[in-house]
Amino acid sequence: MVFLPLLALSLGALVVPVRGGVTYPDCTNGPLKSNVVNSPGVSRLGLSAYQWWNEALHGVAHNRGITWGGQFNVATQFPQAITSSAAFDDPLIERIGIIISTEARAFANNGRAHLDFWTPNVNPFRDPRWGRGHETPGEDAFRNKKWAEAFIRGMQGTESTHRVVATCKHYAAYDLENSGSTTRFNFNAKVSTQDLAEYYLPPFQQCARDSKVGSIMCSYNAVNGVPACADPYLMDTILRKHWNWTDQNQYIVSDCDAVYYLGNANGGHRYKSSYAAAIGASLEAGCDNMCWATGGTTPDPSSAFNSRQFGQATLDKAMLRQMQGLVKAGYFDGPSSLYRNLGAGDVNTQAARDTALLAAEEGIVLLKNDGILPISMTGSNSQVAMIGFWANAADKMLGGYSGSPPFNHDPVTVARSMGINVNYVNGPLTQSNADTSAAVNAAQKSNVVIYFGGIDNTVEKESQDRTSIAWPAGQLTMIQRLAGLGKPVIVVRMGTHLDDTPLLSLSNVKAILWAGYPGQDGGTAVMNIIAGLTSPAGRLPVTVYPSSYTNLAPYTNMALRPSASYPGRTYRWFKDAVFPFGHGLHYTEFSVSVRDFPATLSISDLLASCKGAAVYQDLCPFQSLSISVTNTGSRASDYVALGFLAGAFGPAPYPIKTLATYKRLFDIQPGQTRTAELNWKLESLTRVDQNGNRVLYPGTYTLLLDQPTLANVTFTLTGEEVVLDKWPQPPT
Ligand SMILES: *[C@@H]1O[C@H](CO)[C@@H](O)[C@H](O)[C@H]1NC(C)=O
Ligand SMILES: *[C@@H]1O[C@H](CO)[C@@H](O)[C@H](O)[C@H]1NC(C)=O
Prior knowledge:
Elements (H helix, E strand, L loop, with lengths): L8 H4 L68 H5 L4 H20 L6 E2 L23 H16 L8 E7 L6 E2 L2 E2 L4 E2 L3 H8 L1 H9 L4 E4 L3 E2 L2 E2 L4 H11 L8 E4 L3 H5 L12 H11 L15 H6 L5 H17 L21 H14 L1 E5 L13 E5 L23 H7 L3 E5 L11 H8 L3 E7 L18 H11 L5 E6 L6 H4 L4 E8 L5 H10 L17 H4 L17 H4 L16 E5 L5 E3 H6 L12 E11 L5 E10 L11 E11 L4 E9 L5 E2 L5 E3 L2 E7 L5 E8 L3 E4 L7
Helix pairs in contact: 3-4, 3-12, 4-6, 12-17, 13-17
Bound molecules: 2-acetamido-2-deoxy-beta-D-glucopyranose (2 copies).
């Protein structure tokens, strides 16, 4: 068939708010075999309307493009990315991507979803106030790159046809919903070239250049004065040209109403004087598809076209990219094509349920343990108080952009099914003067108290940032009362950032676990860990900041490096963490050592030996790191090997340390020694100069294993510095 994009009206309906799903058109038979196509649907040709807006951040979700019901009334709901990221297990992330895309494809094959999904969210979690941080893999650019790599491979597959099209969002430097009168619709993120190239963009480089993701979403905010969805520097110079994201089937979609808010809309950027001019600016800058939601007036691209706000060639290109994206996903192929056999039997399988539970168990982080965990909840500990707002509330465990899970395994239900005598009392979330008497009574008749608190996604959510990261006062009062009874208290914290300092000063708070948003089987995961049926080995993918941080770091300050009273951001620069990035205790002890590593390597040898091995020099493999890990304690456990780099090389100031490589090792038995190879690439050794160039510098490097450091090795790179990625400079 011929792809001759039709002009005008087709564009006005790029996001069609249809109810019900898609019927695949058939290009191998019937009229479409020799005809042109467009996006709002042409029934004569067997083309139904296509809804581009489908969500699946951690499982097929409830949203416009997806119709739940019948045999498709549930889908696997994995932990949010912040929790699965804490597992530091990228093969697991790929398996999650495979399951989500398999279920998504099964929905689509049955007319209940479409073929492109607006996932993953890879913006680094820069500020602890951000309401959408839990959708992301955390605060570290390298971690987010690796998470995105594994997830996209799972979602899109490795065949020539995409299983579904993944969409990396939100391009770029989007990590603020609202801070006073500054909102995501009008925020102008002022970002230095160095921070842009080093921190805000690498996850998108991974998506575009290295993972060849099918789609990228431009964000609401402006970057250095230009709204992202109208920025040719971001969308053309960097994304398409520098990252070679030039396949005909790769397209940019705007966040919903982003184009509206870059025009003359109230509350927006007022970057253009009319909606028509905004549409033109966005399309001409390289955006291909405009989503609008409810906030905006319906866009009228036809009149924008007629008033010459954008040209025919631009329209043709945009249409072609989207249609080719659907071609790449097999949308026009016949019923016997790849993935078309997936159906209801491929949704909510036992393997999917097992993976959702495993992801929650692997992602839970043991923040503190005075030796009380694991605990037997039988015999002398047979009465267990379970207190708090999510002890008995399974839906809380899902977080934003969720679908319907197959079951409700909250902690209380799971504990009862384990035969534990539970004394359950609900608790406050944000209420400050909650009555604690029922909770105290339950605790008094119990041997041990488990408190399920923190925050949920009514507190941190899309379009709602926080102003404080202190524990809510009512919950703190409750924990203090419970800790004052002389019984051991275990705190299980959900949600993202809270400063645990006040809990650490309570001697009866014997253990703290962080679960984030653990997904459909989070209750089972938490209880399995508390009972010792599985051992915790997750590591924090964020810094736990003191609550004073929100006074020291203005939310709108995008700078990563500290200066004067400004404390800097992330573990790379911030020195006074309550718990640092990478923190996570075990039920056992490990010792680690590095096996012989060369003391000196020459930069020219490294590059010479890479000839032909990688298209881009930053992807050249580096000497793999051979480590030896011994479980010196008495319980079997996984172990996440984290390798950080530190050293005075490259441009000052120098970061405290930078994550360079990692690997999760499984089920190391007491007394057992395991060896492992940690692979890394030259990118992990580079630093970024003030012009954004990624440079390999000569100097002395220290590889630090684990957090806190258990072993280190020092090596020297000799020779001249080499730019591995020359950064395109912004327009002046
Ligand atoms: C750019 O992308 C195209 C298409 O994916 C590919 O064929 C080509 O090798 C890439 N060029 C580089 C330098 O990677
Ligand atoms: C590296 O290990 C040596 C002992 O082998 C120790 O003296 C030194 O303090 C360590 N350095 C760092 C930065 O941890």
